[in-house]
Amino acid sequence: MSGRAKGLGILVVVLAALNVGLMAWIAFGSGGSGPAPAAPISAASAPPARVGAIATTGGDPTPREVRVADEVTTDAEGALAAAVAPARGVEPAPEAPEGGLLVGEQAMVELFERSSPSVVFITTLQDVRSRFGMNVHRVPKGSGSGFIWDADGHVVTNFHVIAEASEAVVTLSDGEEVPATLVGAAPDSDLAVLKIDVGAERLHPITRGTSQNLKVGQFTMAIGNPFGLDQTLTTGVVSALDREIDAMSGRRIFGVIQTDAAINPGNSGGPLLDSHGRLIGVNAAIQSPSGASAGIGFAVPVDTVNRIVPQLIKYGRAARPAMGVSLLSSQMSRRFGVKGVVIRDVRPDSPAAAAGLLGLAYDRRGGVQLGDVIVGIDAEDVVDTTDLLRALDPHDVGDQVVLKVDRNGARREVKVRLAGAN
Prior knowledge:
Elements: H1 3-28, E1 54-55, E2 65-68, E3 71-73, H2 75-84, H3 103-115, E4 119-129, E5 136-148, E6 154-157, H4 159-162, E7 167-171, E8 177-186, E9 191-196, E10 219-224, E11 232-246, E12 252-259, E13 271-273, E14 279-286, E15 297-301, H5 302-315, E16 321-322, E17 325-327, H6 330-335, E18 341-346, H7 351-354, E19 361-362, E20 368-369, E21 373-377, E22 380-381, H8 385-392, E23 400-407, E24 410-417, E25 419-420
Antiparallel strand pairs: 1-2, 2-3, 4-5, 4-7, 5-6, 6-9, 7-8, 8-9, 10-11, 10-13, 11-12, 12-15, 13-14, 14-15, 16-25, 17-18, 18-21, 19-20, 21-22, 21-23, 23-24
């Protein structure tokens, strides 16, 4: 055997001896400086064998055999078992009652039980004319989710859940089916409000929060009726913020919340909640190659909902803030070689006209002269029409904004008070 091999063999033996000695020291103490070792357990006084109990031979306290989970071990393994065995005279921790929940589980259960009565199941029906006659039949069209908004019986859902429906039926959390009437709809925001005639004592309005201070990574909980399975709970986190999705009207919805909580067909219109059970969004869409949940769901932010729903309840529609201008498309604006949004026309008696904004002008030979080009709103830069709509989206009718415009190479700021779009 080579000297190197002998050296390695000696090193292995030394390390093994040190390991055994260390575990024995842990098991029985170091003598005078550490805690006093437990008194030896004699064969006569030993309690019945149990998992983790030490079985000794005679009165010798040195462990020779240790029975752990009905397996016999010796020497160093015995010392390790003695180290992890309960100390004599110390009561073991009480076991959790059968069926008991962890703290986090209990909190989740309480959150669901507190929030689920606010969630409803919405079924829509549609009138269909028979191919071979003039008879009209009312047939199921689809289903979705919603939630109780207030004690007056208003129910909020997605516009696409009730679009083109002839009738809607709301199923409450207790299973009762109630006919609903349409109060108002905002296709641009994919929101709609229904009304049910139910006593206030049976309604559980949802607690509303804010989406302004959301953070990526915080807890989310979705309650809805995927595939018609009512009162289904899924959980996840806020995966991303400030996403954009397309509404049925073709307009973009801004500030959308992305979550990995499972959202499937039938979840649309249901609430997305935070860890306190507060509404932070309305589940609206998923991104999936199969049509089922792929961990990418989107919700209309509650700040948008809080702004739109009161208008739907009061007026039946949402007043979209506008300046009274028509704009060139981004593609046409690029043809002029400008960075920003070109104003094509300014409507008379509009906020834009009052602010002195100018649209395109035409000379006698048919040439086009640029007027004002919008390059910013308040603190936001504007490069194209999407930027402009995004900057206007959080504002209400009557708000004042500061436009940054470019006219013939000179930039200036113009204050414009927003009016309702016709």
